Amino acid sequence: MKMVNILYRSKKHLNQFIKNNELEGKGLLVLVFANTANRHYIAEVNQHIMKVLPEATLAGCSASGTIDGEHIRNDGISITFCQFQQPVELHASYREVTEGNEEAVGTHIARQTLRDHSKLLLLFAEGLHTDPTRLLEGVSKISTDIPIAGGMAGDNLRLDKTLLFLNNHVFENGAVGITVNSRHLSVSNAYRLNWKRIGKEMTITKSSGNRVYEIDHRPVEALYRQYLGVEKLEALPHSIGADFPLLLRRKEMDIARCVVGLYEDGSVQYAGDLQEGEVVQFGYGNPSMILENMQKDFLPLQSFPAEAALIFSCAARHSLLGEHTAKEVKPLSHSVSTAGFFTYGEFYHSEQTHHVLNATMTILLLSENASHTPEITMNEYTLCRKKTADRQLSSIKALTHLVDQVTSELEEANQKLTFRNSQLLKISKQDALTGLYNHKAFYDLLGREIEFAHSAEKPLSLAMIDLDYFKEINDQCGHTAGDKLLTAIGESLKRCCREDDLVCRYGGDEFAIIFPNTKQNQAHEIVKRIQKKIEKLTPPTCDKAISLSAGIVELKDKKPQDLVELADVLLYKAKSAGRKNIVV
Known about the structure:
Elements: E1 2-7, H1 11-20, E2 28-34, H2 39-52, E3 57-62, E4 66-68, E5 71-73, E6 77-83, E7 89-95, H3 102-113, E8 118-125, H4 132-142, E9 148-152, E10 164-166, E11 169-171, E12 175-181, E13 186-192, E14 196-208, E15 211-215, E16 218-219, H5 220-228, H6 240-243, E17 246-250, E18 253-257, E19 259-262, E20 268-270, E21 279-284, H7 287-292, H8 294-298, E22 308-314, H9 315-321, H10 325-333, E23 337-343, E24 346-350, E25 353-357, E26 361-367, H11 390-426, H12 439-456, E27 460-468, H13 470-477, H14 479-496, E28 502-507, E29 510-516, H15 520-535, E30 547-554, H16 560-576, E31 582-583
Parallel strand pairs: 2-3, 8-9, 22-23, 30-31
Antiparallel strand pairs: 1-6, 2-6, 3-10, 4-5, 4-23, 7-12, 8-12, 9-24, 10-11, 13-26, 14-15, 14-21, 15-16, 15-20, 17-18, 17-21, 19-20, 22-26, 24-25, 27-29, 27-30, 28-29
């Protein structure tokens, strides 16, 4: 067989390339991988190809980078022509994906394309909203024997829109499958992960398909904040979530899972399923570590008479390796014709099982000539010692944070931290009206936070808050209106405070806020923000406007009661000064 690549420039240039390479016939498979989401432009190119080669079968998708021999393309449209020399039949099918029907789509495509002499199923799927695991489960209902390759369409990590192609058509949804049916074709595959496990083992405790809600009974977003120091979660799919995938073991295979999306409830979407009860660890990779193991990983491929290689590698891998990505491809591209693209999830076949992989390089070798013996050579490589880009710096910073956190847990006080978290979970005494911590819980929390602040040498502040004119409003508007006002104020307090702040209803119209790791002036700014918000909550029928007075104190070697009494003294001063005051 013959496989040749071209980076699209113009119709004239493409026509000359087709003529020079004598490309024609029903046994011609055209793979199009586009580093653009310009649907009109892609459709124009594909339609021209089908006009020039009407008997060919064209398929492909948008990408997060393409592979053209030893070159990595991050722009333009890469076109690969697979010309089979022996008799071959190509069967293709597209099916739209609607919510929850991925399994049926996989079954339909397999049923439409697989034949008795099928040697390979190439599968491309929409990359952002399709559940790839269920798609492959559908294929498995028809066959688990046929090797499967391909992946989820990409869009250069914009995570906006991906596209699929089949002949003259461009789709924004669904999946495309193509089988190569031949009595003379041989295929072989391999994969490379080479990411290092780091940190403690964790258990998936709540998940649904590729959506994970809790790990170790904790919200996933809290996990990334704690271990990777992620502050802006909306950036997670674009950077840290891809650089530090979760690693697990399935059927003797190391598998990675990268973050590709976030939900409003804090749950996380991964580019592949994670099942409840599975044990995971964070993974870390660097160019040196990934490239050093190539000779070992490529050794089994040297015995296969490859004439062409299709590579479907992860966008996260491409992003991590950066300018070194081509070095992972060169051992193959120097030996056989090579093409492929960077995906949002790779499809792989091993031991009668179809897998969804992430952060992985998958290799599919093709041959119609059993006597062909290519020599796969390993070339020495050197890594450039340039200043790292911002993305690399953020990864290193996150890795450092991860190592520091894990080391701290192992060497210093993991039991103490675990006890602290378990105590938080056990505190069930909430104020029935506002849902805030109640009076007793306040003292329990304050005592614990004071102890922790002393041991960690961290600041701690306390604000005692009293509502101004609440009694008058309650008397004028009634207890029902008063209760609604207290509930609204409680919600406003929680919204204005930070995640680690502890908001309590001290009693009646009094509230208390514990500010861990916070100095007095910082707490003052938060309470001032609360004051402005509360003023807007006054019932429209009331003569008096609700406001607050507060006393704020910072921990100075004081016991819980001493701290409360001092804050109360400051609160009394605030009330005596005419209300609507904050005294520190």
